[in-house]
Amino acid sequence: MLGIILLYFIGKTFYDLIGKYKNDKTTQWVYAIIAVISYYAGTFLGGVILGLGEVYGLWQISHLNDLVVGFIALPFGILTVVIFYQILKRNLAKKKETQDSDLIDEEFTI
Length: 110
What we know:
single chain; about 85% helix
């Protein structure tokens, strides 16, 4: 249940971010879905890192409950989403800046 709520807030955050810069509902939904996929990719990567640590003897997680391992992999997914959010926000802001400066230049050249 908590996982569904987390996915909702991840999707909503990206939906609102794209809505601020673009007015296309399809694009908003696509980025919300990509954000959820990036969360799952991050948790998968965290699981692979934990598994490799188990194989090479860095730590012992095989005796832990699956829920505990899921909570250990959770920060990897959240970190992936935060990095994706910051990169996307920076790129959208740059694109909007260049579009605004092009509009200003067009007004003065006419």
